[in-house]
Amino acid sequence: METSGFYNDNYSSGSSDDDLVDLSANAQDLLEDLSYDEQDHSQAEASLFSPGGRGQNGTAKLLDLLDDGLHRVGTYDDFNTIDWVREKSKDRDRHREINNKKRQSVLDLLLSLSDAFSGWLLMLLIGLMSGALAGGIDIAAHWLTDLKEGVCLNGFWFNHEHCCWNSKETTFQERDKCPNWKSWAELTVGVNEGASAYVVNYLLYVTWALLFAYLAVVLVRAFAPYACGSGIPEIKTILSGFIIRGYLGKWTLVIKTITLVLAVSSGLSLGKEGPLVHVACCCGNIFCHLFTKYRKNEAKRREVLSAASAVGVSVAFGAPIGGVLFSLEEVSYYFPLKTLWRSFFAALVAAFTLRSINPFGNSQLVLFYVEFHTPWHLMELFPFVLLGIFGGLWGAFFIRANMAWCRRRKNTRLGHYPVLEVVLVTLATALLAFPNDFTRMSGSHLISELFNDCSLLDSSQLCDYTSQVKGGAINNNLSHGANYSSSLYDRAAGPGVYTAIWQLALALLFKTLITVVTFGMKVPSGLFIPSMAVGAIAGRLLGIGMEQLAFYHHDWPIFKGCSSSTKCITPGLYAMLGAAACLGGVTRMTVSLVVIMFELTGGLEYIVPLMAATMTSKWVADALGREGIYEAHIRLNGYPFLEPKDEFEHKTLAMDVMRPRRSDPSLSVLTQSGMSVEQVEAVIADTSYSGFPVVVSQESPRLVGFVLRRDLVISIDSARLCQEGIVGASQVLFTEPTLTQPHGGPPSLNLRSIMDLSPLAITDQTPMDITVDIFRKLGLRQCLVTQNGRLLGIITKKDILKHMAQMTNRDPESILFN
Amino acid sequence: METSGFYNDNYSSGSSDDDLVDLSANAQDLLEDLSYDEQDHSQAEASLFSPGGRGQNGTAKLLDLLDDGLHRVGTYDDFNTIDWVREKSKDRDRHREINNKKRQSVLDLLLSLSDAFSGWLLMLLIGLMSGALAGGIDIAAHWLTDLKEGVCLNGFWFNHEHCCWNSKETTFQERDKCPNWKSWAELTVGVNEGASAYVVNYLLYVTWALLFAYLAVVLVRAFAPYACGSGIPEIKTILSGFIIRGYLGKWTLVIKTITLVLAVSSGLSLGKEGPLVHVACCCGNIFCHLFTKYRKNEAKRREVLSAASAVGVSVAFGAPIGGVLFSLEEVSYYFPLKTLWRSFFAALVAAFTLRSINPFGNSQLVLFYVEFHTPWHLMELFPFVLLGIFGGLWGAFFIRANMAWCRRRKNTRLGHYPVLEVVLVTLATALLAFPNDFTRMSGSHLISELFNDCSLLDSSQLCDYTSQVKGGAINNNLSHGANYSSSLYDRAAGPGVYTAIWQLALALLFKTLITVVTFGMKVPSGLFIPSMAVGAIAGRLLGIGMEQLAFYHHDWPIFKGCSSSTKCITPGLYAMLGAAACLGGVTRMTVSLVVIMFELTGGLEYIVPLMAATMTSKWVADALGREGIYEAHIRLNGYPFLEPKDEFEHKTLAMDVMRPRRSDPSLSVLTQSGMSVEQVEAVIADTSYSGFPVVVSQESPRLVGFVLRRDLVISIDSARLCQEGIVGASQVLFTEPTLTQPHGGPPSLNLRSIMDLSPLAITDQTPMDITVDIFRKLGLRQCLVTQNGRLLGIITKKDILKHMAQMTNRDPESILFN
Lengths: 818, 818
Fold this sequence. Notes:
Strand order of the largest sheet of chain A: 3-5-6
InterPro entries (chains A, B): CBS_dom, CBS_dom_sf, Cl-channel_core, ClC
Keywords (chains A, B): CBS domain, Chloride, Endosome, Ion transport, Membrane, Transmembrane, Transmembrane helix, Transport
CATH architecture of the largest domain in chain A: Orthogonal Bundle
GO molecular function (chains A, B): voltage-gated chloride channel activity
Oligomer: homodimer
Helix content of chain A: 55-70%
Number of helices of chain A: 33
Main location (chains A, B): membrane
Protein name (chains A, B): Chloride channel protein
């Protein structure tokens, strides 16, 4: 029988659950039945043994449940950490069994084959579903965003582009002003020019935004509190082995999908990329229920979730390789090679599903399709590094400001009015965003505009260059630029560009400030798009500056490389590098970021600038603060996450960390023989620990095994009911059952089968850096500490996290408490 | 003081070293002094304590050496396994020290900064050096390959292309026949046509090939036996923590670089990709000596080597991302995220260094630059999967055949004549290869020819399509194909293509057979190019077949998608997929293979066909045999490599694997007090174990710590010489030094400082799958086994490998023996 069971991480404190339950109070009842199949059982068990349970059942039912309970020792309670070693061992047992059977009959062979391919089938399903959902979200968000500005007469369900695409009356240039698309002013006051029309449009823009945001926050509050935020910090925690029940459930999926569309459409400064990872993980978790292999094993399920987070990024950007590397670098905890290959498959399936839906309308796989035609020059590395520095500084600033704001929200009355907060922020966003063209458009639209390399047909303000305006063709700049070098391809900025510069500068400031207060509100909100937007603005501004510098001072030695007949500076490339730098500064992604950007451009040509920008950005940001935004949020929420990247830097020993401390009473242990059932029950009643080491005897505390509180309670109660002669005075034995029954007295109760015979033990002199390494690599929940072979204490994951918090002068009590 | 030291893996067998030394007998003396700085010390120490040492030194020198020896306990002997936990702990200590110091003075701050950036500097150096070497190898191999056919009159150092590039007299089409390039027949008999010229060319081709191959094998034999083979199996073993001194030394680098050029030029069926990984790793290892951080720490050094192997693939194919993933997926054992980022940097630097050398002459980063312009059709997935099946079957066949041949070489007299073997195989290769155009050209040339999509200018036999020959322009096929669908773009094959089909079929057979006997010979030999060549031939054949089918039967329903005006089938794409499938079948690479191929084509367009082909290939090959070629060679050579991909599938317990076995005498232990110096020396003399557990007492064998034989010997000898009053009867203590000295008797010797206070212990009931997991994840060398707190035995990595061999019905004695 499998002896791995569930128990609290907090060995020496039994009160944390109360605090944690508070966090999810509203959602718990609603979600639990939906998200996990085992829910009914664990609830029934909980009511069985808790003094204030929901009512006592008859003995017959009790017996059923006990039997059932005995079969369900492998599950975990909410807000607990899984034991990776046991889970994987369990899966190997299962696999071995199937493998051994497969030669017995054709049916068994088929079962073994279906078992082997269930992983691939699961990946296919996740890919298809996530791709379809992402496509749906894109289409719906596009439509709702346009609805804020006007409506299509052909049918209100058409978005602006679609509406005008259908009407073939207009030429390419005028497609924006097609007759079937009416702005709200045109519909109501009949005109689209003048002050009154502006006011009507403004008003309706703000009203729609408020409506969408209000709906989003109310839906989240009412049905799925877990649907808020980006979800990546929580997914990182879940993947590291924590259990947050309902976080990846059906309701969260439905509500997150709907509210994500609403939140994005409301024009708030947030993106859909992080939430898409959450959505993909929900899909993964839900599909896991179709396969016993994944439903019953928390470790295997986490492999699937790792792949699902790759899928999320893959559909967010259309970058499957980048998505897999993102999952590997940023999100995952345990990422075996098998998962790498499967993630890649799932990410590809999702990307191609999304492409066949074609929500961007450009037949391209990627969100921001860019094609640059000019090579970069070596001297440009200097502005690229500058962008990297900006990105790093901005990232560090953003993390600090956002943390301060979130802490304030947590600790003051602000946190009690989430709906009001969302409405107010939306109001401010909408009011400030509408007047500025660059903030009125959606974040992803803004980014693709900024990435864009101006071509002949571009009517954008950003492409308003003098030579183009006057001649309408690029070659004209040769005649126009007669007093400059006629071979210079760069152009002088026109009035449109100068206006755009001011608008962009204002947008930069606005986006920076509003994103700080937006990220962390109770609506689904991703951070990729806002930070990329800020970086892209900064990059484009620098790019335009460099371009004009090259145009007016092409004789400077640094522009020597430019004096050929090709274009010298590509402002769009600067925007892309700025976006990468800011995103890198906030998230501290490295390889995955470069690869995602590489997939967007599709050429190795720009990898060196990308590396220069992201590397600088990471170095600068790391120098100002070690944590990325996700780690900061994990710490803020006190999730028990053992960061795999940080090194433990202190010279403490296991004996300094283990419980009991020197001043505490000695460790509660059971002995392998000599204790009566009553004595064991007394130990259980007196303590709140979730597990007890079993030793040879009190005088000789040599470790025999480890037994879980829950298993112990279930087994004793079950034995008292079913096994004849078991009374309070019966001996409890953990020895080999071959021992002869002592003469006289009631029959003894042997519980060796529920004892974990292979608990890991380290010596009290083990340095903590090695201990932390062991915990991380093996995914342990607890570890026993011995001195000269005698059991001395226990270290849990929580003890380690508390110790690490103490060592960095943080409040150790913040861990695991919300 | 650091207590980690070195000792043999083979706890119960002390004889393996003799066998291993045999392998490297010729090289050891020559290389040891060159490759490792510590060499002189460890040799001195060895001679000190071995009875048959190279002569006794004076006491003064002895003392010096002993002092020195005490400082050098952190190093390892040759053919031993490192202890990852200790090495990493050591590095953390070092890092902590530097970090604590950095606020003391500006100098210390600078030191800390230089320490932080030394890793990046190292990566830069490795990238530059490997890129330069790869460029040099490419250029030299290109020149020597052409030298087999003729010589340039402008200067013998020009290769064919270079020679004709310089002479601007010829047109593009005739560049192949430029006047300055003379074939050997033209130079000697004056003509290049007719039988006599053919015979002369043939003869000189064979002669040059023999000369190159002979030189290569003689150089390898004489100077660096480690330079033979691909090197990837050994690098995998080294990265997993094994020490093979000199394998990555300076001499190996020099000889491997030279002989690689010779071997490739000789026309043998081998590639330069695997050896380039070895070359890059040599660079990495040599540059490690510049930085204390990496020189003194085997774990840190392995991080660098992981990055270096990424560099190797990066320069081999011009695929930096693929290289990093190759290192992650195929080669590395311990690959932290920091290494991922640094590998990526180094791979990029190397790729751009190589590009600036531009050895392929096409300004492209990649080895096989291909650009396909036609989309693939869904029905083509069927032939793609067929290619996958072929690749899998071929891979499985190749591994079996090559293993059988290598085993024969190892076990029969064949292995005693490596030079003769190389000469004979070269003779056979050259004789058979010359008459066939496709085998005469070099492997990489053949592959790029096969990948190539026929364009207008192609004069290759493979592009001899009817319509082209008659009209000279592609549009002519519209008129030619009047009786076929005029919109069909596929073309009827001309006589050239039909000839090529036969030649390719023969080449396929020839390459398959000759590669089986070539891979494993005593010359540097990579497997990537030959297997890709075989796959590309098969793929091209299938592609041409499909193309002709589509041309003649375009009305078949499966070709419905083709009836547009675009080309339907791209034979070059088939060749690429075939190459990927065969490479995948042989090496079992997955993601990295797809990404390398993706980087060659630079478009996500063909990822789905690539995945279909490689996935099928891997499944088929795995069904026929679990091991890839590298794992098979590791097993053949008996390297102690704990495969991280395989799951341990058996239900044994730690007690079944540990030593001593039930029938053996009990474990040799030391007690923490009560043993005299003489008694300890007797234990050392009686056993050959490399370490001894320290227990409380013989009666109560509770684990206190673990002490290494080598440390023990050094410390006792040093104490006898330097410490007053230490005689044979002195007590050896491992207890806390605060204990009061017992009255009377000689002073005691406290050796607690050399004891490892934190040995990892597991219980005897621990399932072996968990034990294997712990060994793998923590990188342990040995682990102690306890039962109820009493020490029972020990498990070493070698015990595990032997046990695994036994479980799969292989000879357990094959491990570690050559």
